[in-house]
Structure to design on (868 residues):
């Protein structure tokens, strides 16, 4: 099995706080890798180091051998890294279909085109993506009036627009009802397998993590303290201590 | 040596009165987040009221200062009326609406002042007890200048004490940092905002009242001083009193010494300093970066739709009618219609950048003016034929937009508005002050179209067709990837960036694109009037454009067209018939628009005919 993303020795400090302290991990092709940890563990910082929002103090990030450190989020996207956000970010004044078309236009370097009109461009491709996420019926509706769960699906379709090798999903199921969460993660898992895409996601919902991740890494206070198959991580003493407390207060 | 020292003191004296108005504006912005365009009007009111008090009562030295304080207090009360009557209703509105609303107040106050005190400039009375001059290093300095030099730091000290030694002052400082948090802590915001507005208006009034022995009072003070006050607030940092003082001294000295070195460029210098500060420290010398607002954003507009059959029929009918007009109407009607064609093009180009681009430019007149002056200068100095000048104008405007836009798109919101305004003012100052080249206030005359367009009717058809074609191009561009991607950057910069869109570059290109069309509108204007004046680049020209777009509806595509037509017809009619209080009427319309019809004419009509689901 090949490795898509390698993060090696990532470090980032804010003032005196070591938000990410020497973190290394790999994402395998076609795998869903969950990154978990309590609040303040450094998950978001770590994510932003990968997607180019922040520059690491030290360490490297490579996507299929290509160095990502120093590139802008835009350039990283062009290399095949799609993103979804904890709070959905879509184009509210556009329809569902148009939102997906934007990603396709950008992917095909058509941002400056002033001859053709958008309504004739990449409609079939966009509809195919919407078909995949189950949003065809709503393709003509404005994004500003969609239900939150549907927006998440639109975002997924948008993120697939550049045929990504890797998806970075920041809390993909935040703000959703329990049933919707499972549906969305199942959909994501199916797409990932079908297209051999890798996913790195952060998540607070342990049902989602242990139900769908192929592998889990655990951060605490900026350090990577465990990684492995979900069951191994679940049984790791250190992880249990972080999430449940050591029990020492009660033992005494 | 002595001369330079005197010049330095003169600079300090003028800095004091600038500090007072800027401090008031800055405090108000800090707490309410409203940039009060009408602050210059309050300053002017202070000047007129104190002039009236001092000349009717002819008080002694103490009485003079009491009259100044009384004038400032009256202005403070006017501020309360404005706050409770108007601003309170629009705190939640987008910044654009707030700025435009305060511009409506400018028009009304200007009319009232004109009505009470008349058109003539008033020469201020001398201050009793301070009417002499003192000798420093062999040069004389008016005693009153000393009083002014003392007044600035004195007021600064008093404000500092109020802000740091009273509970109210602590609340003001807290609200300046995070007003939502202050609200969440249960502070009576209504009272806080009103009292802050009183203080701000009082300071503006004090600034205006205290300067009458030096500058007197005239009806142009409001817009003249507001530009300087803006510059000071921005340089010092919005919400920072000490910053306002520092910036006032910088600008006061810059003017005092700039006039010795570049007598033609003093205004340019001031705006250039502001532009540099905005780029290096967008939040000003002593200001802080703005806290992110937690308030939900505006509801986005509904998705773009091609015009439906009814709208297309209406447009076709209008165009047919316009083609027939010359057969049965007078030259006067043709002149108004040509104006309308020009301003439709101007407004549609502005809408391109402020609607889909999401960048509210307060200086679109710069590009219109560059087109107009570019045309006039080419014809005047080089004898360029009309046809060539019409092609050159949009290119000149686009080059201007390319340079100014490169800086401007680095900022957003109020700061973007201010920087575009600054660039427009720089353009205006060059045109206004560079007499040898642009003939300044006298304008450039005798710029007439080629022989084949010399009749009014011919030029009418020419302007109509040019405007139609350009409006069609601008509109169609919105449906192309360029237009859509620009809108994507506005809707969600985060998402746009995450799908590889360079939002800043996209905005820059849209800015240039819109600027070029504004330049063409300016050029058509020059040939229709045969002349050009600095007014075409001035602040009111930019505001007119914003008004047209708002009147029609910023979230619609046909809005700017309808708005420009309605606004131009209205102002032409109001001013040509010398309707009484036409400025006030216009001001009242602005206020009604902002408070009652924020969606504009077309937005209003559309909401009536659309199913609720599709509404934005």
């Amino acid at each position: 099995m090949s490795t898509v993303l390698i993060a090696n020795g990532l470090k980032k400090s804010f003032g005196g706080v070591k938000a990410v302290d020497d973190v290394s991990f790999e994402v395998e092709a076609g795998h869903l890798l969950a990154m978990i940890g309590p609040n303040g563990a450094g998950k978001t910082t770590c994510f932003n180091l990968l997607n180019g929002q922040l520059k690491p103090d030290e360490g490297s990030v490579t996507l299929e051998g290509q160095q990502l450190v120093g590139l802008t989020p835009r350039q990283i996207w062009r290399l095949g890294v799609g993103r979804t956000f904890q709070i959905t970010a879509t184009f509210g004044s556009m329809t569902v279909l148009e939102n997906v078309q934007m990603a396709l236009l950008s992917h095909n370097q058509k941002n400056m085109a002033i001859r053709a009109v958008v309504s004739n461009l990449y409609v079939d491709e966009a509809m195919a993506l919407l078909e995949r996420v189950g949003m065809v019926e709503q393709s003509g509706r404005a994004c500003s009036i969609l239900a939150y769960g549907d927006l998440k699906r639109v975002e997924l379709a948008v993120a697939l627009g550049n045929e990504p090798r890797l998806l970075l999903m920041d809390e993909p199921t935040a703000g959703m009802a329990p049933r919707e969460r499972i549906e969305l993660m199942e959909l994501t898992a199916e797409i990932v397998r079908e297209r051999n895409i890798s996913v790195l996601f952060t998540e607070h919902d342990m049902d989602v993590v242990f139900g769908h991740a192929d592998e889990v890494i655990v951060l605490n206070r900026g350090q990577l303290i465990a990684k492995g198959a979900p069951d191994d991580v679940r049984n790791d003493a250190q992880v249990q201590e972080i999430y449940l407390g050591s029990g020492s207060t009660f033992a005494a | 040596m002595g001369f330079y020292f005197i010049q330095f003191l003169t600079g300090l004296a003028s800095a004091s009165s600038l500090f007072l108005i800027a401090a008031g504006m800055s405090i108000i912005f800090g707490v309410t987040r409203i940039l009060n365009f009408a602050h210059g009007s309050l300053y002017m009111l202070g000047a007129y009221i104190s002039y009236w008090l001092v000349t009717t009562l002819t008080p002694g030295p103490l009485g003079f200062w009491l009259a100044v304080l009384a004038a400032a207090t009256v202005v403070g009360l006017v501020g309360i009326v404005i706050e409770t009557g108007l601003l309170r209703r629009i705190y939640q509105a987008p910044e654009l609406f707030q700025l435009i609303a305060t511009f409506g107040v400018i028009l009304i106050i200007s009319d009232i002042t004109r009505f009470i005190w008349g058109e003539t400039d008033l020469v201020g009375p001398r201050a009793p007890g301070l009417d002499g001059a003192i000798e420093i290093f062999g040069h004389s300095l008016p005693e009153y200048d000393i009083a002014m030099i003392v007044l600035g730091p004195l007021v600064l000290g008093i404000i500092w004490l109020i802000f740091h030694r009273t509970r109210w002052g602590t609340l003001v400082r807290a609200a300046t940092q995070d007003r939502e948090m202050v609200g969440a802590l249960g502070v009576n915001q209504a009272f806080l905002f009103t009292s802050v507005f009183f203080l701000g208006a009082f300071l503006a009034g004090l600034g205006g009242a205290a300067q009458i022995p030096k500058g007197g009072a005239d009806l142009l003070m409001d817009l003249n001083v507001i530009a300087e006050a803006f510059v000071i607030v921005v340089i010092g940092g919005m919400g920072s009193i000490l910053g306002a003082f520092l910036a006032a001294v910088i600008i006061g000295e810059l003017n005092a010494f700039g006039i010795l070195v570049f007598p033609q460029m003093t205004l340019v210098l001031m705006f250039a300093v502001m532009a540099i500060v905005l780029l290096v420290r967008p939040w000003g010398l002593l200001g802080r970066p703005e806290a992110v607002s937690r308030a939900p954003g505006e509801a986005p507009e509904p998705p773009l739709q091609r015009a439906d059959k009814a709208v297309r029929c209406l447009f076709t009918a209008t165009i047919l009618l316009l083609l027939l007009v010359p057969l049965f109407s007078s030259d006067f009607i043709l002149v108004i219609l040509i104006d309308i064609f020009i301003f439709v093009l101007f407004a549609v180009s502005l809408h391109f950048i402020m609607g889909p681009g999401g960048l509210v430019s307060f200086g679109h007149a710069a590009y219109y003016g560059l087109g107009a002056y570019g045309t006039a200068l080419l014809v005047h100095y080089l004898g360029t034929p009309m046809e060539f000048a019409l092609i050159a104008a949009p290119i000149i405007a686009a080059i201007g937009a390319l340079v100014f836009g490169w800086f401007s798109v680095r900022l957003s919101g109020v700061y973007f508005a201010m920087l575009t305004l600054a660039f427009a003012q720089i353009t205006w100052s060059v045109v206004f002050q560079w007499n040898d080249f642009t003939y300044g206030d006298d304008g450039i005359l005798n710029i007439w179209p080629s022989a084949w367009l010399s009749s009014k009717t011919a030029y009418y058809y020419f302007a109509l067709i040019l405007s139609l074609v350009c409006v069609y191009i601008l509109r169609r561009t919105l449906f192309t990837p360029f237009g859509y991607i620009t809108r994507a950057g506005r809707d969600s910069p985060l998402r746009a960036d995450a799908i590889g869109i360079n939002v800043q570059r996209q905005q820059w290109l849209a800015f240039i694109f819109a600027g070029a069309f504004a330049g063409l509108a300016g050029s058509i204007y020059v040939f229709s009037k045969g002349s050009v004046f600095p007014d075409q680049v001035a602040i009111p020209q930019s505001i007119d454009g914003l008004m047209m777009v708002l009147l029609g509806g910023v979230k619609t595509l046909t809005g700017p067209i309808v708005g420009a037509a309605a606004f131009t017809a209205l102002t032409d009619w109001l001013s040509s018939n010398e309707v009484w209080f036409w400025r006030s009427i216009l001001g009242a319309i602005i206020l009604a628009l902002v408070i009652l019809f924020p969606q504009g004419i077309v937005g209003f009509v559309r909401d009536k005919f659309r199913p609720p689901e599709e509404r934005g």
